[in-house]
Amino acid sequence: QAANFVCAFHLFKENVGSPCLMDGPSMLPTFDASGEIAVESILSYRLFPDLVRGELVSLKSPFNPNRIVCKRVIGLAGDTICVDPTGLKAPSTAHVIVPHGHVWVAGDNTSCSIDSRDYGPVSTALIRGRIVARV
Prior knowledge:
The protein is an alpha+beta fold. It has helices at residues 2-15, 42-47, 116-119; strands spanning 17-22, 36-41, 56-60, 68-75, 80-82, 95-97, 102-106, 122-123, 127-134. A hairpin with a 7-residue loop joins strand 3 and strand 4 (68-75). The radius of gyration is 16 Å and the shape is globular.
């Protein structure tokens, strides 16, 4: 009976959604650096994959696929994006066009975030789901 519950929980968590811990400084002030619980909806992204600028998403880190990160969608396919308006990681005059099947993501706390300024446009295949609520 316990094995059935564990299997059902795993299937629900991987295909529908679940609460997840958001910690670290990259999403300050949206999420506290010491950790907050957010609700990740995987099913809503699978059913309605069209993203909106400003939306929070969970995705596999392009640098470490074993790690799930939370970032804000800044640009969609076809958008021309200033690589780094702050000038911290690239000249503020550098621009990129987001390719088809990709998005540009950033942390809310740009001084402490590893995001598209570091790894470039992110394939939508790496996106797991939407962050739909903070608990």
